[in-house]
Specification:
heterodimer; A: 255 residues; alpha+beta; Ubiquitin-like (UB roll); Fumarate Reductase Iron-sulfur Protein, Chain B, domain 2; 2 domains; 5-stranded mixed sheet; two-stranded antiparallel ribbon; 8 helices; 34% helix; B: 225 residues; mainly alpha; 71% helix; globular
Chain lengths: 255, 225
């Protein structure tokens, strides 16, 4: 069995959205290297509750890397040091005994901090609501193979659709830009026949909402792609640019 | 025309304009470098003098081209300033600690993350360059001086020489990201062509940086002209 870890945590504590936050330092002892990062935080919270202190608030749900609810900056990296990993799937064996770990919430004007490490990602929901769907009534599910879609087209659409909406792309971007998220959400429909009727409107509406939410601009630094826990490619950003230009210049839909 | 205004001020609209203005400026760099490299023709400056005279006798085209370039530069600069302000506003509270998750490259700060800084250096270099060559504010030459003699004389000035070497190398680093980034902003990515564009961007950056920097290096530090 590997040795247990003793760690120093510097955690962002903020009582509510309007409150002034600050870093608080905590020590955690006997952390199993097999624990996930969230389980380590659970241990910290158990300790804080035992001492009668407020536990650290953080978002989490499935804890198996598919829901996109968890997410925090761990030592300055979204979801921690491992690539293609959500915070809940990050193991404590990635850290060394005696390490100091700095834990911060996502930072963006469009993701205001609600409490401690919890941010409001409602801006992502509003971008989705602006056009990230198909509203055409197509009746019951069609028979398999009655809408033939080549695998070469279905695969990239599915790859885009794996976006969890966790916000790591925004958090890691030096400009707090949401282009990777919006790129994925526009791409998943633009690549499929079911997405064609509202293709132009979708690109225009979702980009307009993205700008409305005051995310930054994309400078093609590609930090988002490196931070994405499911490996959404920056090809999606190029596609979003293309979709937006196409919708603006070639379609008859008004932006 | 309300739709056009909305498109132009949208985040993607601004990045598209940034890409187009940047690529047009790259075009200017090619033409400018082509002319400048005539300084190296070993004929005592004849080829360069003829080129410069041919350019300056364009009484109609030259002012149009100059105004066009000023507009292009101002457009590129204005877009940089506005998008940079948007980006700063998008994260009012920064991180205590932020580290890249990308594979580390050969240079600590990748060109993409220092575009404002390199752009600012290029802007200062441009002011120095225009003050020297276009307006002759610092070093006045004698009446009827030939263009080759003027260039050789100006590049001997130590401030000019060092400033130009730094300015042009930084310009190379600026276009290293800028050239290939413009294609991404215009939505032009392709599994076959994007790797070629990235290599072309690297080659172009070397050409611009080394090509322009070779002039102050040669005339300011090596040649005895």
């Amino acid at each position: 069995m590997t040795a247990k870890l003793n760690l120093t945590l510097k955690v962002w504590r903020q009582v509510h959205a309007k409150a002034k936050g600050e870093f608080k330092t905590y020590k955690v002892h006997d952390i199993s290297p097999d624990m996930s990062f969230l389980e380590m935080l659970d241990e910290l919270n158990n300790e804080l509750i035992r001492k009668g202190e407020e536990p650290v608030a953080f978002d989490h749900d499935c804890r198996e890397g598919i829901c996109g609810t968890c997410g925090m900056m761990i030592n300055g990296q979204a979801h921690g040091p491992e690539r293609l990993t959500t915070t809940c799937q990050l193991h404590m064996r990635k850290f060394k005994n005696g390490d100091t770990i700095v834990i911060e919430p996502w930072r963006a004007r469009a993701f205001p901090v609600l409490r401690d490490l919890v941010v409001d990602r409602g801006s992502f929901d509003r971008i989705q609501q602006a056009g990230g769907y198909t509203s055409i009534n197509v009746g019951n599910a069609p028979d398999g193979n009655s809408v033939p879609i080549p695998k070469t087209q279905a695969d990239p659409a599915f790859a885009s659709a794996t976006c969890l909406g966790c916000g790591a792309c925004v958090a890691a971007c030096k400009n707090a830009s949401a282009m990777l998220f919006v790129g994925a959400k526009v791409s998943q429909f633009a690549l499929l026949p079911q997405g064609q009727p509202e293709r132009a409107q979708r690109a225009l509406s979702m980009v307009a909402q993205m700008d409305e939410e005051a995310f930054g601009n994309c400078t093609n630094t590609y930090e988002c792609e490196a931070a994405c826990p499911v490996g959404i490619s920056v090809d999606n950003i190029a596609r979003l640019n293309r979709e937006y230009i196409r919708a603006s210049v070639c379609s008859n839909v008004m932006p | 025309m309300n739709w056009l205004r909305k498109v132009l001020v949208s985040s993607i609209g601004k990045k598209v304009q940034m890409g187009i203005s940047g690529l047009l400026l790259c075009g200017f760099l090619v033409a400018h470098l082509g002319g400048n490299l005539l300084l190296f023709v070993p004929d005592g400056g004849k080829a360069y003098n003829e080129y410069a005279h041919a350019l300056h006798t364009q009484k109609l085209l030259l002012p149009v081209a100059e105004i066009g370039l000023v507009v292009l530069f101002a457009w590129h600069l204005l877009l940089a300033l506005t998008t940079n302000k948007d980006n700063a506003d998008a994260r009012p509270v920064g991180y205590a600690l932020q580290c890249s998750k990308q594979e580390p490259g050969p240079i600590a700060k990748p060109a993409s993350s220092v575009m404002m800084a390199t752009g600012a250096v290029v802007f200062l270099f441009l002011i120095l360059h225009l003050a020297d060559f276009r307006f002759e504010l610092r070093n006045h030459g004698s009446e009827g001086e030939e263009p080759f003699a003027k260039a050789a004389r100006l590049l001997k000035d130590p401030i000019t020489c060092v400033g130009y070497i730094i300015g042009t190398l930084v310009l190379g680093y600026h276009v290293l990201h800028g050239f290939q980034s413009a294609f991404q902003s215009l939505g032009l990515n392709h599994p076959k062509y994007t790797p070629l564009i990235k290599q072309a961007s690297f080659a172009f950056a070397i050409l611009v940086g080394a090509g322009f920097a070779s002039l102050p290096l040669w005339f300011g530090m090596i040649s005895r002209h």
